[in-house]
Design goal:
Chain B: Belongs to the binding-protein-dependent transport system permease family. Chain B: It is a multi-pass membrane protein. Chain B: It is found in: Cell membrane. The structure holds two protein chains of two kinds. Chain A contains 14 helices and no strands. By secondary structure, chain A is mainly alpha-helical. Chain A folds into two domains: 27 residues; 221 residues, MetI-like fold (Orthogonal Bundle). The radius of gyration of chain A is 24 Å and the shape is globular. By secondary structure, chain B is mainly alpha-helical. Helix content of chain B is 71%, strand content 1%. Chain B has a two-stranded antiparallel sheet. The chains are: A mainly alpha, B mainly alpha. Chains A and B meet through helix 1, helix 4, helix 6, helix 7 and helix 9 of A and helix 1, helix 3, helix 4, helix 5 and helix 7 of B.
Chain lengths: 282, 297
């Protein structure tokens, strides 16, 4: 009886593991394969598209880096990501603090207005935004793109930061104010350090978002020296139809994904939590 | 706190006003302005902006491609909701209820595609569907099903369904985690009680798990619907660009083509208004359909 049951359990366990293992392969194999492909020559990609490379050579990376201006677009993406992430924080922290901690009329309404920004299809706004940026001389400009990115992540950032600031005990701010600290210093010296965990989560999420973003960059950037990585890859991909430079394409995909993998390896739990919380807003 | 009213309001203004100006200029103004543009015929140069009333809306109704883009969008919505919810629910139950040792490993792997760039996902899957080199056709040949092999993204009938798989692949992890969060909150005593009453695992799932994680299911479905209607055009743009022969155009990619490729900015804005109205209506209807009283045992 005992033996029979455990055999049944083992079979059940294996049965349930099968779909899990299959999905793991479905997720990991294309990613591994992209890495493998980046080390293969074009001839080998045709001969042996899905197997292990015969020899690992870095020619594709050199090619992408030097002949396809990936170096410039990596630099552009880094600038846009960094400026966008900092700007989001500068705008979101004071607003999140004021909404959460200061009593004023309309605070609920303001919060609702910001948060509903997460549900509105921004694609309608992109047409006027295009002309607005043109008038401000910020079209085809990575700083203009960074501003647009920062504002686009305001709803998410304010939403997560308010819920984070609400967990900080009020007594600390109150006693600091008793000691004569100005509200500006309370915000900067007390609230900001205490919400550091929330700030880090929001910043990682925003940075990944900006690093990956494609469509706004497609609309708001035009000349190739301003391309972000996503646009450069898209360009290499459409070129590869004619040049068959698949190896170079894979190398540029790898360059784009490695920073994300590193961030995920370090901050896996934070990222997962940040994203689920961002989605559970009802 | 000892501070004058004036100080309080100065501080409040410091916190709120600069951010709100940025939000107003770069989010609110463009949205309302988009609404306004939809009444104009405009190719982008400022001198030839002409007020044409509802003419764009009449063009919209008569445009033979528009109904297809709407159908394509809702096809993606429905297939994604079904595919993601079934798989995410299965994985969430398996990883929480069945005491699998390596569960954290699966959780970490399944979530990863959620933070990959759509460009990377799109190009990777374009390659998987590649008629000559691709994994799908090679796999079919390996299984002896050469007849099923086809140029997936180049086939008018198969291009759109082919976009569903990458979307599910990329989306599942997040919803699995949301459902796992819901299941973790269900008290163990309900399952124990159900077990004593003789309910098998399948009955436990239907009678205990499903009703009690209903809030998470509802949020997940709404979230998939919203993100698909507001963002499906990105994967379309990367993988097919709306082709072949408009067979994969969704509302957003058609807007992009009209506005930024053909410079019909007024008409593009009209499509944008349609997207806004449809997605708000869909969310309202869904919220009504999915309402279900909170279950408490």
């Amino acid at each position: 009886m005992f033996v029979k049951r455990s055999i049944g359990q083992i079979l059940g366990r294996t049965g349930i593991r099968l779909p899990l293992v299959l999905w793991t392969i479905a997720v990991l194999y294309p990613i591994f394969w992209m890495f493998l492909g980046s080390f293969k020559s074009n001839a080998e990609i045709y001969r042996n598209p899905w197997g292990i490379p015969e020899s690992f050579h870095l020619q594709n990376f050199v090619e992408a880096w030097t002949n396809y201006n990936i170096d410039i677009s990596v630099f552009n993406s880094l600038i846009v990501t960094a400026i966008g992430a900092v700007l989001t924080l500068v705008m979101a922290i004071p607003t999140a603090y004021a909404i959460e901690r200061i009593n004023f009329r309309g605070s609920k309404l303001l919060f609702t207005l910001y948060v509903s920004g997460m549900m509105i299809p921004m694609v309608l706004g992109w047409i006027p935004l295009f002309f607005l940026l043109m008038q401000l001389n910020l079209l085809d400009n990575i700083f203009g793109l960074a501003i647009v990115y920062a504002v686009s992540q305001l709803p998410f950032s304010i939403f997560v930061l308010t819920s984070f600031i609400s967990t900080i005990p009020k007594s600390l701010e109150e006693s600091a104010a008793m000691d004569g600290m100005s509200p500006y210093r309370v915000l900067w010296k007390i609230v900001t350090p205490l919400s550091m965990s929330g700030i880090i989560t929001v910043t990682i999420m925003n940075a990944i978002q900006f690093w990956n973003e494609y469509f706004m960059a497609l609309i708001f950037l035009q000349s190739s020296e301003n391309y972000t990585l996503a646009l450069a890859i898209d360009y290499i991909s459409s070129e590869a139809q004619y040049t068959n430079a698949w190896g170079t394409l894979f190398a540029s995909l790898v360059i784009a994904i490695v920073p994300v993998i590193i961030l995920y390896a370090i901050f896996q739990q934070r990222i997962a939590k940040g994203m689920t919380e961002g989605a559970i807003k009802g | 706190m000892v501070q004058s009213k004036k100080q309080k309001y100065t501080f409040l203004a410091f916190c709120l006003v600069p951010t709100f100006i940025m939000f107003a200029v770069f989010t609110l103004y463009p949205l309302f302005s988009g609404l306004y543009y939809s009444f104009f015929d405009w190719s982008g140069a400022s001198q030839d902006k002409e007020f044409i009333g509802l003419a764009n809306y009449i063009t919209l109704i008569k445009d033979a491609i528009i109904p297809n883009t709407i159908i394509h969008d809702y096809f993606l919505v429905i297939t994604k909701v079904i595919g993601i919810m079934i798989l995410a629910m299965f994985f969430a139950v398996a990883l929480t209820q069945l005491k699998i040792k390596e569960a954290p490993f699966y959780r970490i792997v399944f979530f990863f595609p959620n933070i990959m760039s759509v460009v990377v996902i799109g190009i990777l899957w374009t390659f998987i569907y590649n008629p000559n080199l691709g994994l799908v056709n090679s796999g079919l040949e390996f299984l002896g099903l050469e007849n099923w092999a086809r140029p997936w993204l180049g086939d008018e009938n198969w291009a759109l369904p082919s976009l569903v798989l990458p979307s599910i692949w990329a989306g599942i992890g997040l919803f699995m985690l949301m459902l796992m969060g819901g299941i973790a909150n269900v008290s163990k005593s309900y399952y124990e009680a159900a077990e004593i009453d003789g309910a098998n695992q399948w009955q436990q799932f239907w009678k205990v798990t499903l009703p009690l994680v209903w809030p998470q299911i509802k949020i997940s479905v709404l979230y998939i619907v919203i993100t698909t209607l507001n963002g499906s055009f990105i994967i379309v743009q990367v993988m097919t660009g709306g082709g072949p022969n408009n067979s994969t155009h969704v509302m957003g990619s058609y807007l992009y083509q009209q506005a930024f490729v053909q410079y019909n900015f007024g008409y593009g804005a009209t499509i944008g208004v349609m997207i806004l109205i449809l997605s708000l209506l869909t969310v309202l209807i869904l919220q009504f359909l999915l309402r279900r009283d909170k279950v408490e045992y």
